[in-house]
């Protein structure tokens, strides 16, 4: 058995010494925190059964997830397998074939299914040695940890086209896993383009494959207001058409589907800017019909509407975080969209209150925060609020970085929590950002003390919707969102040098010399020093970006093909621009 | 009640006088052959039941289709509706609300479920007048006709966001429908890029929405050989990787899923060119390792392999048509890929047989035709075979046009059947072909006698896969493939003038004058003369291409949004290049 902890070294070997031609790949994305594997191969019974234990073992979420993953794992087997499975279920004594793995035992210790920030998502997964047991085991503290374990299990299973059975290679496996960050987000913008419920469900499903766990739903913006708000029923008059809307029931369905996948929904109501569409139903919210943003700060009515929206939304969204936006508010005096000082009644109000426009911006954001907090929400705001009046923000505020690097260090230095979304690396609509730039971005960059690092709750990739509609949103998200979700661990410089030298030998055809290098590497006298800091799910790497071509690229290409097989239209990994078509014929694994 | 037959006039009115702002759209794609509609609105019970009649009423295909369409029709209603449905099913006496339509009665006269070219796909669909009946009826001769009727029914149903019920507007409806052509195809190329089974299933599903009925599966080409052939098990060594393959069971599953949707699968084995990948497993099929195409004509072994492939495929594919390719065979003496005369043993064989390379091309194609015919298949060949040796082709040959216009007229003049796929208009990988050019292409162009017109069995849009992988194949197919599938009927010049004049009034804000024109139009003293020639599904139009912007574009945009809602990533209709992202924020219905 080949043991390394964390075991990147092994994966590098698989990728180069074995390659795609001879043996199936067993690539995990994102990499588990710790794992060992062997060199056996186990067949998996298509009639795989679930047995459960622990206080949370009887969870309906777990049962549904097992059924879902069984369909995924045995999907390619197709007709024949469905037939065998049916036959086996009807005739339990009929052993059509002998399989090594016949059941999956899942232990869930807690029956608490509340899904909140920081819920325990850890799990252990054990695949036995051939002949030792016919059972794969997953053990988790919560049902959400078991979901993560099931995803990893599904990635261990490969369809063997020769025997037409599902196999687990490199058995036995022992995996101890937990996420690096509690908040692993994807933002979806349903205002610039409306995405039908079916499409949002497809995206949720794919998020669970990448072990992302927060959908930041940027529901409303200037362009359209698609959500039903029962208290203010004219608000969704701001939708593009009557057929591009989300009912309260739709929103419930999204929240519930996410819970089934262990994914929280953080809704956003972006105020006071980015809100022009509100006025389609209630024009009084605009400073004037000709000057529509930011929302009219001078009227109590404006805050009544915000309060009404948040009251209605509180019934739908159980997650403790609520995003209040607060970005790009035009308060500069030379700004043409500067409505507050150019609209007479607002201007007068400002004078009466002895406020500048900038003061009013602060006043508005803080008042919105008060409303959110009164409804038991933790407010999240875009970084402009912090950059402009940090000391005034509610102390529980989570600051959402987007403009550039270096913001989270300032945020945590002042004791606030931070979400990392530096647009130069994690805005998915920036099509010129290649996968490796997404991959090597580091949320803890520039933050050196453990106590400050803990204030970075995670990161989020943002899918702004200006040029992404139903036809191309998923290929803009995938595979790059997964690059942020999963981070490889890389061995230190010494180990890396051994590998690189060996690789050069192999490429030159100097097989013996290459092997000698690898054997030297595997006999490494002491455990290789791995920088064990962390990233979104996996461990933080400690090497230069170039190295990811060896350690991460083959795995990400494999994950992209896995998404494709599961019906997700993830784009080629290495295209010059994201979501661009492949340049010519070729394998999914190479493009 | 507003009656017009065919009723394009009505649809034009809806599109411009009503627009998207006030009433829901009821747009059908493709347009039925004949229909009338009214001005009522009926609510549809989410617990809609199916009642059946006729010899074919108990069909499992029908039951499955009903369940599928019920999910589609009530999808947006989401959680609340599922809940109501469950409640109603458990408590049949509990009437949560009164609905106008509570059941769908489907009569299928024949229990013959054989799916072949020319199967009867006609149906009638009647939606009652409010209060007259609570039953919508579909009547068809075959179960496949009932499937087409169910699709039309689903397009009549709209979700009303105000009452949160599904409604049928413009009731009563009376629809008599049948396809114009028996063969309405989409070609998929799984050699240049491998599409996972899940993706092919998504494409099949969407084909049924557009009432396309033949998947031409271009399985194998130069680049890869993904299909399992049990008799020659090394053939799929020519796949890109071990994980980009179709097992026999996969192929069965595709055929079966298609049958459930009323879609035939026409497989293609393209010989003797486009076959380099065959030699990965059996290098003897190449003239030489350095000169690999066309397949070695001199060996009996080559034809043994073809015969073996066709024997295996016959067990999978029940459709009577089999495509033998035969395109782009390089026989010119100056052609660098001209392997037959440059490879010594083939050259010698040609001399012994007293054959030129062109003779050998004919010999090869005819021998392949013999093999296919011996297995009870009707051979289909690309047009080069006809262009080169028409008189020698098997008399049952169906010639598949692709090079350009004017081929089908020559083909039918010689008594052969023809499939229209002129690359200038119906190659979907030609991204610069806009929707209206696809839409206005006419398979019967230049064919004037009824007997010759009957020999054009239909047309096919071709999705060559060089730059289309899983990430972008569906947006390259849709919505343009639907443009070929559906053709609007257009009123004659007089009617058109009335509409255009009215429209100009409306645009200028001259509402009264515009209305007067429309009223004049609706009081048209005699039924407007419609040129009742035909296209792929719908009636052939008789006006100039410019007019489609009025009659077809809003309906196609609506159909694109319908595809999006059903989870199909159909691209914006009017983008300069197909599958290009939208240029900015906006509604699905406008982009």
- Largest interface: pair, residues per side: A-B, 71 and 71 residues
- The number of helical elements of chain A comes to 21
Number of strands of chain A: 14
Question: How does the helix and strand content of chain A classify structurally?
Answer: alpha/beta
In what range is the share of β-strand residues of chain A? 15-25%
Could you name the ranges of chain A where pLDDT drops below 50 across 5 or more consecutive residues? 1-24, 487-500, 518-534
The share of residues in helices of chain A is 25-40%
Q: Write down the Rg of chain A.
A: 26 Å
Within the largest sheet of chain A, what's the order of strands? 9-8-7-14-13-12-11-10
What can you see in these coordinates?
- Two copies of one chain form a homodimer.
- With 591 residues, chain A is an alpha/beta fold.
- In chain A, 36% of the residues lie in helices and 16% in strands.
- The radius of gyration of chain A is 26 Å and the shape is elongated.
- Mean pLDDT of chain A is 86; it is low at 1-24, 487-500 and 518-534.
- Chains A, B: Keywords: Glycoprotein, Glycosidase, Hydrolase, Signal.
């Amino acid at each position: 058995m080949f043991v390394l902890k964390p075991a990147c070294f092994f994966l590098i070997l698989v990728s180069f010494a074995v390659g795609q031609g001879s043996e199936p790949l067993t690539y995990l994305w994102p990499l588990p925190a710790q794992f060992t594997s062997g060199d056996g191969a186990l067949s998996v019974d298509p009639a795989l059964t679930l047995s459960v234990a622990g206080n949370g073992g009887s969870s309906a979420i777990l049962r549904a997830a097992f059924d879902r993953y069984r369909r995924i794992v045995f999907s390619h087997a197709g007709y024949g397998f469905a037939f065998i499975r049916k036959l086996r279920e009807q005739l339990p004594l009929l052993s059509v074939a002998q399989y090594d793995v016949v059941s999956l035992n899942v232990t869930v210790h807690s029956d608490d299914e509340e899904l909140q920030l920081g819920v325990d998502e850890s799990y252990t997964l054990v695949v036995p040695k051939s002949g030792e047991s016919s059972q794969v085991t997953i053990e988790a503290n919560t049902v959400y940890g078991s979901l993560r374990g099931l995803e990893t299990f599904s990635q261990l299973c490969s369809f063997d086209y020769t025997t037409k059975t599902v196999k687990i290679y490199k058995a036995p496996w022992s995996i101890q896993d937990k996420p690096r960050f509690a908040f692993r987000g994807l933002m979806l913008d349903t205002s610039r383009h409306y995405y039908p419920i079916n499409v949002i469900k497809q995206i949720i499903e794919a998020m669970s494959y990448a072990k992302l766990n927060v959908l930041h739903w940027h529901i409303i913006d200037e362009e359209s207001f698609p959500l039903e708000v029962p208290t203010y029923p004219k608000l969704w008059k701001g939708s593009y058409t009557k057929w591009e809307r989300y009912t309260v029931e739709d929103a419930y369905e999204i929240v519930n589907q996410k819970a089934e996948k262990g994914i929280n929904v953080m809704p956003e109501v972006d105020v006071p800017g980015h809100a022009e569409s509100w006025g389609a139903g209630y024009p009084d919210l605009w400073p004037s019909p000709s000057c529509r943003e930011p929302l009219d700060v001078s009227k109590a009515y404006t805050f009544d509407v915000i309060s009404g929206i948040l009251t209605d939304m509180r019934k739908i969204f159980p997650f403790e975080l609520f995003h209040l936006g607060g970005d790009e508010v035009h308060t500069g005096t030379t700004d043409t969209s500067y409505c507050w000082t150019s609209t007479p009644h607002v201007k007068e109000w400002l004078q009466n209150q002895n406020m500048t426009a900038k003061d009013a911006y602060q006043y508005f954001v803080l008042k919105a925060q008060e409303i959110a907090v009164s409804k038991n929400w933790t407010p999240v705001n875009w970084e402009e609020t912090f950059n402009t009046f940090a000391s005034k923000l509610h102390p529980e505020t989570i600051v959402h970085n987007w403009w550039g690097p270096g913001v989270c260090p300032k945020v945590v230095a002042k004791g606030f929590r931070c979400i990392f979304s530096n647009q130069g690396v994690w805005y998915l609509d920036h099509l010129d950002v290649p996968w490796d730039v997404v991959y090597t971005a580091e949320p803890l960059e520039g933050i050196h003390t453990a106590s400050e690092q803990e204030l970075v709750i995670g990161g989020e990739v943002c899918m702004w919707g200006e040029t992404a509609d139903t036809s191309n949103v998923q290929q803009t998200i995938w595979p790059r969102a997964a690059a942020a979700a999963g981070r490889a661990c890389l061995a230190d410089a010494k180990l890396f040098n051994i590998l690189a030298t060996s690789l050069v030998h192999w490429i030159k055809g100097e097989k013996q010399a290459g092997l000698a290098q690898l054997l030297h590497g595997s006999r490494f006298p002491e455990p290789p020093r791995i920088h064990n800091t962390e990233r979104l799910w996996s461990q933080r790497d400690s090497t230069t970006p170039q190295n990811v071509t060896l350690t991460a690229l083959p795995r990400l290409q494999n994950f992209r093909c896995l998404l494709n097989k599961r019906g997700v239209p993830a784009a080629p990994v290495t295209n010059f621009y994201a979501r661009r078509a492949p340049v010519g014929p070729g394998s999914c694994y190479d493009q």
